[in-house]
Structures are given as C-alpha cells and as structure tokens.
Amino acid sequence: MEDINSQIITLTNRGGMKIQLTDFGATWLSCILPLKSGARDVLLGAPSLSALSQQQVYLGATVGRFANRIAHGKFTLEGEEFTLTINQAPNCLHGGIDNFSYRQWKIEKKNQNEVLFSLLSPDGDQGFPGDLQVFVGYCLTDDNRVTITYTSQTNKHSPVSLTNHSYFNLAGENSTRTCLEHDLQLYAPQFLPLTAEGLPTGEWRKTTGTHFDFSQRRRIGRDFLQDDEQRRVGGYDHPLILDTEKTDGQSIIASLFSPDDDVRLDIATTMPSMQLYSGNYLQGTRGKSHEYANYFGIAMETQFLPDGPNHPEWDQRYRGIQQANKTYHNSTSYQFHF
Fold first, then answer.
1. Active site residue 173
2. Per-residue pLDDT for 222 more than 70?
3. β-bridge partners, 257
4. Which superkingdom heads the taxonomic lineage of this protein's source (predicted)?
5. How high is the pLDDT of residue 233?
6. Which of 41, 48, 153, 289 has its CA 20 to 30 A from that of 313?
7. Which of 114, 182, 301, 311 is catalytic?
C-alpha cells in the first residue's frame, strides 16, 4: 500500500449538493444532500485518508482490474493460463493484493462539477495480461445526479470489470438505521447462486418466487437470512442479472428508499449485472462518525459477472473479457431525490 499523499476534490451543484473524491483509489468519499432538515452525508467512508488506506472493505473505491472474485486466482484465455495474486484465499478478489483501490490515480482534469482520473496498469500487473489504460470520471449535475464513467483499453485480450464500491445509507452516515430498514426496487430477472466462498456455481436462477425478487418495492430486511443462499454468505452478496431492456444507462434499474422515505436513490447503468451486498462484514470498520456494524450500508456494484473468465459457457456480454486495442465505455449514475 502506498503512502498517502492524496488530494481531496469537492464537486458542488447549484442546489447545494456536494460530493468529495480523492485520487487515492479514485474513491468517492462523501455525498452530502442539502435536506430541509439539514445536510446529510449518505455515503459510508473512512475518518481520514490514512484510515482509508488501511480499511479493507473498499469504502467508495474504484475496483479493478476485475471486480469480485476469480476462482483460485486462475483463468485461461486463448489457450494460456494466467495466475493472479490471491487476496481472499483461495481466490482473487477485486483485482488482487495491490488492486486499483489502493493506487494513486492521476487527476487529468477537474472543475466545479467534474473530475477525471486515469491509471495505467502494466502488462502482468497482479498477473493480468496487457497494458491497460483506464479513465474514471465523476460528474455532479444540477439535478442531483452523480454519473461515473469508465473508459478502458488494453493491448492484449484481458478480463476487465470496473465498478464503484460505495456503501449507501440514506438515513445518514451518522444515523443508527441500517440498510435492512431501507426499501429496494430492482429489475433483475435472474440471480447467481453461490458457493460458501462466494463463487458462482454456474447456475442462473430466476428471482421470481425467491427472496431475491425485488421487482416490487420491498424492505431489504424482510426476508433477510431466510434461505440457504443468504445464510451461506451471511446475507445478500449476490450477482443479479439486470433486465437487458433497462441497461441503457438512462432507464432506472434500481431504486433505494430511506427508512423515513425522505430520500430516494435511482440507479441507471450500462453494465449487465449488479452485485447486491448488504454489508455483511462491515463490523469493526472505522467510519467517519462511528465504528460501523454489519449491515450498516448497502453496496450495489454494477459490473460484469464474478468469475466470468472461467465460464466460457456464458454469453460474452457478461464475462468481462476485453478485446485487444478496442476502447470500452460504461457508465453508472446515481440520482438522489429529496
């Protein structure tokens, strides 16, 4: 992990909404909404940049080269086997030991409403093939929307799946309410069952009739830990296959509602899946205002499917394999209503 010598960038809009970011991990640090009842930070975060470098739950970080898990830190591409660094034995999680969350990114440009970060990951970085150039942009608009854009290009075929690992608590980072007291509506017709290690079994299962069906607005805690799927990994920590008709970057794919119904978060994305994670292992994490407990925040990580490189039977749109010398663009936006 690098020494922290990072900048904090503040973006503001005309309505008084403010977000803070840092070039360490291209991390989203805070999201402050100007409610009538007062300013409310709805993003979990570390109490300092030094603490940010020590935490291991990816608070607000840009995750890469490959979000989520790759089984046993190995995959085969075009007949060649690649071995990655192992940071959640026996698997590679979120890109390996020295993943993008712990890197010093370059600030390419910034103004009052947007900032653009860049990172060059060399061939062989954490075991991945190809020189990879990545740009991650954050833009705050006057309609209280935060849009994160991802642009990437590699000179060899390589797995690439970038996401943001923010945890939201719409009641406030300093509240006592948990993510289980939030309501969620989510358009995802299928989910991936997991092993106890959090790896996909390979099966795709319909959400209809299961505790993973959020097609109608529903309390997250209502059916919490009520099935073997959740109990196996301590709660929700599952890949959801998003409705393909809604992954155009404009349509609302998910809505999160605060416990008192005074804040709503709408998410739109171009990514094909979302990891729904109920903060099952937040216990003991130092936060801005207090030490976090399990389930205090929820992460909704838009991404390609975990372990995609090891599942050639899946459709290419889900596997996260980038072709050499082709530029890829994706985006996810978070619009707050209050």
1. no
2. yes
3. 183, 264
4. Bacteria
5. 96
6. 153
7. 301
Reading the block at residue 328, the tokens are: 């890829």
Helix (H) or strand (E) holding 331: strand 328-337
Residue pLDDT, tens place only, 265-313: 999 999 999 999 999 999 999 999 999 999 999 999 999 999 999 999 9
d(CA 331, CA 250): 10
Distance between CA atoms of residues 19 and 30, nearest Å: 5
- Residue found under tokens 């939201």: 168
CB 292 within 8 A of CB 220: no
Catalytic residue status for 165:
yes
CA atoms within 13 A on the CB side of 174: 10
Q: Which of 165, 173, 182, 229 is catalytic?
A: 165
Q: How far apart are CA 122 and CA 132, in angstroms?
A: 6
| CA-based nearest residue to 170, from 336, 1, 3 | 336
Q: Predicted confidence band at 3 (pLDDT cuts at 50, 70, 90)?
A: very low
Place of tokens 């007949």: 79
pLDDT range class, residue 5, cuts 50, 70, 90 = confident
Answer for the pair 223, 235: CB distance below 8 angstroms, yes or no: no
Tell me the residue type at 14.
R
pLDDT tens across 108-132, in order? 999 999 999 999 999 999 999 999 9
Q: Which of 282, 130, 125, 306 is nearest to 202 (CA)?
A: 306
